[in-house]
């Protein structure tokens, strides 16, 4: 009951803060528009039509209704629905993220279980990890010569490090007593890894995956701005070039919503594998 009451109070506070923010935004934009009195020279020169301002939230809501009413329309290369653009971005993120899982988790197990492997690979990890993922984009475009595959590679390179380090940390932190019990029962290395080490390290591994998916979603927007074509990043950049700030703000909100949903999915998976000692 106390938890429900706390959640309810938090939800009410969130709604109140949102209403206050949107109200202040709407009022400030309205006052700005009313306060912009044009001089006679500006009217004759037509400067009034050239001005652009941040749209009020009411315009953004109207744009959201228009876009979400038919999110999968396709009217040509530069006019696709928000659903199609998000689908392209999510597919790239999941492709790069999946490749990172295939590399990071086995390698993380090796590093976590072998001090020799850790000392041998740690210098390479420490050199490559701080490099911005977008710094790899020119090299990827030159070698791969495909914009979509290059974007997937950038997602891979930014996703692999949090998973790799968290997997190694989780595996290395498994209690020695549990591993000794497995050896007492004469379990092989592979079976010990799957039946003892993996379940024990799963919460830490999922934490790394949760961090990675968040970073991947951040990077894909910037990557798609560079490579163009399709995706939510390209959509933002294209609408900015069209000076449609209402669509830009709407797309930013959609990026945030999708990012929140991806994080919520991995948070649920993390809770599902968390155990109490």
Written account of the structure:
The chain is an all-alpha fold and 277 residues long. The protein folds into 2 domains: 1-54; 56-273, MetI-like (MetI-like fold, Orthogonal Bundle), CATH 1.10.3720. The chain is 81% helix and 0% strand. It contains 12 helices and no strands. It has helices spanning 2-35, 40-45, 47-50, 57-69, 82-113, 115-128, 137-144, 147-172, 176-184, 189-227, 232-241, 245-273. Helix 8 runs antiparallel to helix 10 (189-227). The longest helix has 39 residues, at 189-227. It is globular, with a radius of gyration of 25 Å.
What's the level 1 CATH class of the largest domain?
A: Mainly Alpha
Radius of gyration: 25 Å
The overall number of domains is 2
CATH level-4 homologous superfamily of the largest domain: MetI-like
Strand content: under 5%
Helical/strand content category: mainly alpha
Task: Spell out the helices and strands N to C.
Answer: HHHHHHHHHHHH
Biggest β-sheet: count, sense, barrel?
none
Any idea what the CATH architecture of the largest domain is? Orthogonal Bundle
Shape: globular
Number of helices: 12
Could you list the spans in which at least 5 consecutive residues all have pLDDT below 50?
A: none
Primary descriptors:
277 residues; 2 domains; globular; MetI-like fold
Secondary-structure blueprint of this entry?
Layout: H1 2-35, H2 40-45, H3 47-50, H4 57-69, H5 82-113, H6 115-128, H7 137-144, H8 147-172, H9 176-184, H10 189-227, H11 232-241, H12 245-273
Helix pairs in contact: 4-12, 5-6, 5-8, 5-10, 5-11, 7-8, 8-10, 10-11, 10-12, 11-12
